[in-house]
Amino acid sequence: MTAAKPRVVLGVGAGIAAYKACELLRRLTESGHDVRVVPTRDALRFVGEPTWAALSGRPVASEVWSDVDEVPHVRLGQDADLVFVAPATANLLAKAAHGLADDLLTNTLLTARCPVVFAPAMHTEMWEHPATRANVATLRSRGAIVVEPASGRLTGADTGKGRLPDPAELFEVARRVLARGDLAADLAGRHVVVSAGGTREPLDPVRFLGNRSSGLQGYALARTALARGARVTLVAANVTLPAPAGAEIVPVGTAEELRKAVIEAAGSADAVVMAAAVADFRPAVRRPSKIKKSESAGPDPVELVRNPDILAELGERRRPGQVIVGFAAETDDVLANGRAKLARKGCDLLVVNQVGEDLAFGRPDNAAVVLAADGEPTEIPRGPKEALADVVWDLVITRF
User: Fold this and answer.
1) Which InterPro entries does this chain map to (predicted)?
2) CATH-assigned architecture of domain 7-183
């Protein structure tokens, strides 16, 4: 027997970003989802009905008067596994927050008992207006996931926060929410800080001391937290990956820059996960010009000094109820070194994983043992880094 396709209602608001929803629709249908597009009446001014019907392979309606015998204003929401609204305009967010139902999409939102995701897109002033912020807070308090808009070029010459995130990243949100079902918003109302990537300590204007961390595990932690409803601050050290939809990205380079950004963001965070690979040492002196190779002598020795211990400092600064998670990348004596580090750092959880050639760094999979300051270790078998991330958040949630 063939498994039923996940049923998705893609709501489309009347914003210029509606054209981006075509790419989201394509990714959903090509990955095996049964998608019914429900645009608002004015959304069809931006992208017409034939386009939505051709891409989805399903009829398109915006009014409750179409196919009345099928009672679509009730049935669509009842039957859906996910309702995803992109773009969600300020007007549409206001209607949803106040329970208005004057078209097929707003009726569907009222009848849906599945996870609901809104991806807002509007001008910065509209996004920052107290009315919009209140409406977003209301929707989140009811369990809806509202993805933070991206920053960048808006309509016309304007630039700021309010841009619809990349459709590929919105698809990842949809995929993760569908995977978790009714548990999707268990981090709603929480602010989490995640560090990712690897720091670089300059030797001169050309060279640096660094490591092989790609940022994949930290970005997986950010994506899974976003799909579970959290507000995410992602401190990214030298990472070139696409930004997860809805995350506030703070780019950094060195260990000291990462320390400053994490400590500042942690002041309002419910949890901090230090997944970044932070250099233990840095050159005592940064040369102002490129170090030249001498033909007659070997290189001058490089004096190193110790970098600040960010994880230990987070443990000392922690607010009541705040959960601190560290990562330990080990090459040998993995568990012994991990337990010693857990005792030194004062964190709640320590994710210990073995690294090396073809292990962890730059790979899509990972395996780890999570050591807890207050309980038994949790072994996570090798699998996608998203799966490991979900286990970490599961353990964090039990400690809130």
Assistant:
1) CoaB-like_sf, CoaBC, DNA/pantothenate-metab_flavo_C, Flavin_trans-like, Flavoprotein
2) 3-Layer(aba) Sandwich (3.40)
